[in-house]
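user: can you give me the structure for this one chain? tokens are fine.
assistant: on it. calling the predictor now.
[tool input]
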Amino acid sequence: MEGMQAYGAGKAGGAFDPVTFLQQPQTILRIVSWLFSIVIFGCIANEGYINRPKEVEEYCIFNRNQNACNYGVFMGSMAFLCCVAFLALDVYFPQISSVKDRKKAVLADVGVSAFWSFMWFVGFCFLANQWQVTKPEDNPLREGGDAARAAITFSFFSIFTWAAQCFFAFQRYKLGADSALFSQEYTDPSQDAAGAPYTSFGGDDLESPGGGGGQANSDGAFDGTGGYQRQDY
């Protein structure tokens, strides 16, 4: 019974082991993706806006396209929150007793991870393209170049970390549930008793102390041919 699991986790109610949790592949990938999102967000938010020497207003370092910086900042911040949410879900996941709820959580993991992998692919292509067409005269002091390249690089890496999370989540989904350990539906015992057919005691199986059948006594008791017997006092 020790090895029985449902969607990659054992029976609900077990003790939480932080060492085992941190050694799980999906946990490592979530932490790495979380760090990547911090790097992308920090690089663009801190050094992603520059201006020319005679300008006061700052523009996005990626071809002065504000949408590029806004996309990177938004994606980095949202990926950060998503990683934190799924890390919390991973901690709580072994305590979920319902197989259906576990299935929903794993399917959500598959869908969200695939979504973020695709979005980081779009972000990488977008940032790389805008950086490629950036004009040197827009940044004569060459400020923020390393931050821009770091944001592009970690956007590229994030594609594979989120794709790997999707893969491991799909593997957990394929594991399914052990029907011998977990039940998908809970049935109230009182409902089972109420729904069972009523079985009465058969009179033919009972015998009177005198050796006669219970059916014979019953027929005699209700036979109207005996008439009314008057009792004298």
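assistant: here you go. Helices lie at 18-23, 25-47, 66-92, 99-132, 145-175, 189-195, 214-221. Residues 18-182 form one domain.
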